[in-house]
Amino acid sequence: MDINDLSIDNLVKLYDLDLFELGDMAHSIREDIHSNKVYFNVNRHINPSNICADICKFCAFSSHRKNPNPYEMTKEEILGDAASAYNRGAREFHIVSAHNPNYPYAWYFDIFKTLKDKFSDIHIKAMTAAEVDFLHRRFNKSYENILQDMQDSGVDSMPGGGAEIFASEVREKICKGKVDAQNWLKIHSIWHSMGKKSNATMLFGHIESKEHRIHHILEIRKLQDKSDGFNAFIPLLYQRQNNFLNVKKFPSGIEILKTIAISRILLPNVPNIKAYWATLGLNLALVSQEFGANDIDGTIEIENIQSAGGANSKRGINKDELISQIKDAGFIPVLRDSLYNEIESY
Ligand code: V47
Hints:
Layout: H1 8-11, H2 19-34, E1 37-41, E2 43-46, H3 75-87, E3 92-95, H4 105-118, E4 123-126, H5 129-139, H6 143-153, E5 157-158, H7 168-174, H8 181-193, E6 197-204, H9 210-227, E7 230-237, H10 253-266, E8 272-273, H11 277-280, H12 282-287, E9 295-298, H13 305-308, H14 319-328, E10 332-336, E11 342-345
Parallel strand pairs: 1-9, 1-10, 2-3, 3-4, 5-6, 6-7, 7-8
Antiparallel strand pairs: 10-11
The structure holds ligand V47.
């Protein structure tokens, strides 16, 4: 088949190829760019609150009937967690929150600024495009204004969350009312035009079709052609517990690996494909490194979103354990910073 024919009808046929044929194609692209390195970082996830004004059916993290434990961290708690993670070596804080209607606008920027003042060499990856859109709706501020406030208060890059699946017929069913595809892409495009980097995710393995996935990947590719600001693409495998999405059929391991490989093949302009171990499990995330992925995310320390949905990631993973697992899988573990500069290989 001709992978230069970018029609969805054509590209969806990639799923019909033999897994190993697809894997070979993806692996050779990955080897050309990254040889046999697997990137990871030492990071700390901080989720200040799970109280959410939006209702995404796939989400088990927000405080709703299936998870009735609403919380709001105080600034002191956030600083305390950040300080202990920093002292253990974390150099990235990945801060995302539910869309909490109780926080004043300045709350977010005060936290970022305080963290940046206290830990000058920390990289703050914060605020999904869905959160930016929430602030826009809640406080009637323009995207430009909010993104500028993020930059001014010390946010270095944006995480890829909130993208889910771009097709409106799927969004309608899984996350009605949240940022739409056009605005998700617009927010990242403005951020990129400010000279900043971000990631892009795709939540797959629920009610979406293979065509929806291809469409989603192509939308990322189109924006990347224009803005060149995406560092990594992250296919997030849907976790099925404690939520309101009624999913009957889940993808097999083969289909998951094909989705990773297809992401690598169809995104020649995005440098990194992250097999996020929290959703895939460490073993499949390691196998994914032979199917196009070159990154596994980091130590995380505390993981609230995917573990609420059933993933075995609540306590993160120890750095030495991650290094030895990557080595055992036959790759070179490379500690990176948040912008993919290499710090140390093992
Ligand atoms: O957007 C919510 C997803 C995302 C479930 O940029 C679920 O480096 C699976 O975006 N099953 C937030 N996924 C997490 C995220 C992320 C994670 C790691 C690294 C980066 C990065 C970004 O979590 C949400 C949503 O798509 N999510 N519920 C669930 N049941």
